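## retry 2 of 3
previous attempt timed out at serialization; input unchanged, resubmitting
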Amino acid sequence: MKKFIIIEHEPLTIRLLRIWNIEELRQRGVDVEYWDVSSLVFLGMAQVIPNKVQDKCVRYISTTNSLESLLKTNDASKTVYSLEIFENWDNRKILLLFRKYHCFCVKIDLYANTEIPSPFCERLKSYLKRVTFKSFFKKISWICYHKTILKNIIETNLSSSAVVHPDIRINHPDFEEFKKADSPIIKGHYIVFIDIYYPLHPEIKYSLKKNIKEYTAAYRKTMTSFFDYISRKYSLEVVIAAHPKADYTGNEFGDIRIIKNHTCNLVKYTDMVITHGSNSLSFIALADKPFIMVFPDSYTHIEDMYSYIISLSKAIKKTAYNLDKVNWDTISFSKMNEKTRQNYIETYLTSKETENKKNSDIWIEKLLT
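## retry succeeded, writing output
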C-alpha cells in the first residue's frame, strides 16, 4: 500500500478530516500524512481558521526549503501526493518542486459543484462585455503557464463532475455525507439558512483579495430582519447552519439559533431552506427541499460573488432575490425542477459507477495499491 500525502492550503479542520476520509483510510492500513502549507501560500490564514484539528498526521510547512527537505527524504516511488493548492503563478515554486523530485501527483476535486458552467455563448458574451487588453493578456498568459510550466505535474484527475471529464470518477463528499445522516439533530419543523460566513469568510480576503468587513453590520441587520419575517410568515423557527469556517459567538443574528458542523443533517430534515447559493446546494438537491436563493445588495459590488449567484440561479432555473431591493412578500419557496435536480446530481455529485462505492475504496483501488 502506498503512502498518501495530502498537500493542503488550509489547516486541518473537522470538516477536512471528514471529507479527506483520513480515519477511514487509516483503518484500512493506509499511511496518511497531511502537509499543511497554509502558512506558505496564505500567510495569516491559519490564525483565522477556527476549530483546527491536532492530529499525528499533520506536518506544518512554512517555507519552500522545508517542503523540499521533506520531498527529498520521502520515497517518491511509494507515495501518492494529492495537491490541494491553487495553481496560480505565486505557487509555481511549490508546484515545480513536485516535478523536480519525480512525485506522482493527483488532483482530487472535492468541490466539483463550485463552478457551474454557463452555456458557451453566454460566457463569451459576458467576457466580451468586460474584456480589456490587460485581461486578455492575463488570460493568454494563464493558458501558456498551464500548458508549459505546469505541464504534467498533475498525472491523474479525480472528480465527481462529469463536466471536467476526469480520469477517475468519484463521489462528491456531500453525497457520501448525505447517505450517513440517518437521524435528525432537531426534532420537529424548522427552516434552515445555509450560512457562508459573509462577509468575513477567510477566502474572500485570501483568495478574492477583498477586504469587505465593513458590510458586516448592514448584512447581519438585513438577514436578521428577514429571518424574523420568514419565521412569522410560516410560524416556524429559523435555524442557521453555520459555515465550517465561521467564528460566531452566538448573538450575531439576535436570538436565532446557530449550529455548526451539521449543515447536511439540518438540510436533510428541514422543511425549507434559505441559501446564498453555496456548495451546499448539493444537500438541497439530494433532499429535494423547497428553497429560496437570496443575497444582500453589497453582493453587487463584488463581481465574483454576484456573477456566481446569478449564473447559478440561471443554471438551476431559480430566481435569486436581492433582499435590499425586492418586496419580501414576492419571495416564495419552491423545489428545484425535477429534471434539473436529477441532472445536477448526476453531473456534479455522483454517477452510476460510483454511487454504491465509497471514495476511500475508490482511492485505495485506483491509486494506492
